[in-house]
Amino acid sequence: MPSTIPLATYRLQLTAEFDFDKSAALVPYLKALGITHLYTSPVMKARKGSTHGYDTVDHSQFNPELGGEAGFARLSEALSNHDLGLIIDFVPNHVGVHFADNPWWLDVLEWGPTSPHAAAFDIDWDLLPHRARGGVLLPILGSSYGEALERGDIELRYDAGEGSFSAWYFEHRLPIAPERYGEVLRMVVKEADAAETEAGKRLLSLAARYTGLRRPNRKEAPGFKTELREIAGAADTITGGLAAYRAAKDRPAQTLALHHLLERQHYKLGHWRLASSDINYRRFFDVNGLAGLRVEDPGTFAATHRLVKQLVADGKLQGIRLDHIDGLRDPAQYCQRLRRLVRDAQGNTKPFYTVIEKILCEHERLPHFAGVQGTTGYEWMNVITHVLVDAKGLGALDETWRQISNRPPRLAPYVKDAKRRVLETLLTSEFILLTRLLARIANGHYSTRDFSADSLRQALELYVLHFPVYRTYLTTGAPTTHDRKLIDETIERARAEWFAADEGIFDFLRDALTMDLLKPGRPPHSAPRVRRFALKVQQFTGPMMAKSLEDTAFYQFHRLLALNEVGGDPASAGLAIPAFHEAMKARAKEWAHGMTATATHDTKRGEDARVRIAALSEIPGEWTSAVARWKVLNAPHLALQGNLRAPSATFEYMLYQTLLGAWPLQEPADAGFVERIQAYALKAAREGKEETSWLNPHEVYESGVRSFIEKILDPAQSAEFLEALQTLARRIALLGALNSLSQLTLKTTLPGVPDFYQGTEFWDLSLVDPDNRRPVDFAARHAPLNSLDDPDWSSLIRTWPDGQLKLAWTRRLLKLRNGLADVFTRGDYRPLEVRGADADHVIAFARRHGRNAAIVVVGRLFAPFTQAGREWPVLEGFDATIDIAGFTAPGLANNELPLAQAFRDFPAAVIEARAATATRPARQRVRA
Questions:
Q1: Which DSSP category does 922 fall into?
Q2: How far apart are CA 557 and CA 563, in angstroms?
Q3: Three-class SS of residue 162?
Q4: Residue 170 neighbours by CB distance under 10 Å
Q5: pLDDT tens digits for 862-879?
Q6: Is the peptide bond before 775 cis (omega within 30 degrees of 0)?
Q7: Highest mean pLDDT (candidates 359-363, 577-581, 640-644)
Q8: How far is CA 533 from CA 430, 476, 514, 537, 735, in A?
Q9: What are residue 267's DSSP bridge partners?
Q10: CA distance 544 to 471
Q11: Sorting pLDDT into bands at 50, 70 and 90, what band is 925?
Q12: What is the C-alpha to C-alpha distance for residues 739 and 375, in angstroms, rounded to an integer?
């Protein structure tokens, strides 16, 4: 049986091209590598052709494109045969909607609020303007509604197999409410001139039997459809008669008929741009095709988790990764229900590994949720990056960025401006809903009704602009001390920017956010509305921060791209070694079993591209001089038109860092590389929302950027630049490789579960998705593995660009981790003192459980020992000694370990040791 707490996980991105069977074929390789748990992208049925699986359309079945239930069974058998566990990525927050593949969503469109699945979706039915009946906005049209109607893009069709009517807009199915079937049948019989035919008579008779409001109702509709389907000749009559609804510009009567029919549905069609201002269902961020699920509804939770429960009960699932936990109304309640479900399925005898995708801002602490071992590891990825960055070089990079951007090197103004942009464009509809709800609360009592809707909107906007993290975690009860403090501090920052008369508006807003309005003795307000407002604000601030920080500011603030990572601080001053040790000691006590990731499907660049760029902090002067020269060399390739400069000066600076991070190690920068950089640049420019954006693409600017990249990477046009770039890239690649080995060593030996993203056993120089989801050549990784049982490190170092050095070190570390499982999963963390002139270049610590121990020594800031990246480090040159008092190991004498000895064969070391005394580690939280 696999261990309940993984020793190492391996993330696979499953697609139709890389399905359950191909994953099963990879299991022997993962076992040989030292992996204990396969960790996959979502496996439930997703939208056809999905490349990621997060657009789940049916939680109750396996994705047929991955091989369905039979394919999963074969994967499960392969894992069981090799004693590997399985962790799946699970999406509780949202499902894929629109198109024609989500049965719940189609039922809601057909039946509206009376659908049994309406409770599963967060829809505000009464918010559509200028409409007599409630409905949900469907922003799926590529043009205005009128244009789509008159072009005939919206077509009414009859499904003879179901006996049902639907409007279709290309691949989008829009079910017609059965209460309108009678009117449709009368119209089509008349249009087909079939009133006197047998089929026509039976159709009219069927329609006549269901008169009155809302008929046929849900109970009657199946019988109605069955009878309609069985009428001989009905399909031909209906097909001919549907011409009555065939809209076109020269068919005004038919166009109007279709329009009137559509207006009487439980939905309203609209241009996709309407989503930002008028959408009335909760989405995943600003993605219209992903609708939020109300898993707080017990029926919805049970239905969406039925397959998970069965897998746990069958022993086929050992862990789960919960996607976008911050999107849920009440994450604490959800985690409690999930733990109860797992215990019902497997009993309470062992932990079930559960981690959450939670992005923590700087200095933010993770709340404790029932059964949760930790996060997917973004915060620890950033801690590792920050300790490998040269803090002394960041000051110089601050000045370089100041000169290039003409702005101070502070992130906060970028985030605040980005939030304003997102409020005005992407998430306007969600914000409008909150302001309306707040105004209704205020209007509910005479003491607060004079707070105008506009004043409340401005106050709430200031609160959102100053809110510093992703969300609070209020439930229906009183807020925690931490959440109350966070709300109070944000209110005060917002109040400081309020220039109108206050008159208590911020006190009212604070009390609505904390739900203090409902305390006994306060003026009575609507309890359901106050609770709904407070909890919905929490669901709003997460997407707000994500779109503003990760998807906007990270693509504007380019001081050092290695720091622009999910959960990171691009303006970080780095992390001193003592602070790093304190963070790890705390982690060993609180979150010893959370994941430690260095690359995921969501990271902004590959793990080795990141640490390459981090190395620029070690040579800031050379880097600044190189950029100055490159700008001159490439000035002729800029696109200049009036005030337009493509790329902008800041974007050009970003491109040079990106090129160094992704520059190929062995093969030349061919046409494929140029296309990858161009694709990345287009996404980065649109995400940055400065000169262009997804909502409003600037074709001239984008064309200029594309041309600039093509020209500067063309040897015929930019030979001098490319020679200079390649010279620096070779040096940065060496420093980056050394950083990577340090990063890998830390990830594998620190408290936590190391997670390996697919293919990163070789150098990972990928860019943001979809570049980091390209197919992986696993055969190239598997083939040399057996020859690396007893590696010749000097030989591997000589050929380090081929990636086998990283593969061999990965295997060595995982072998040690498997051999000292208790040390790395249950052991404490003890910093080791380093003395000598080069002490600041060494991170040393011991992991210990009982008397078993491991001494870990990692180098950093290698530029002084490599002639700034020109040669492999002369390890004997390190003037540093590690104090290992209290530990013994073969070959180690006294209480000191000279660094030259530790790094004799390799620029990192993990030494199996014995502690002089057995010290019981501090008790860790193990969450069942």
A1: P
A2: 10
A3: coil
A4: 13
A5: 999 999 999 999 877 789
A6: no
A7: 577-581
A8: 12, 11, 10, 6, 51
A9: 136
A10: 10
A11: low
A12: 24
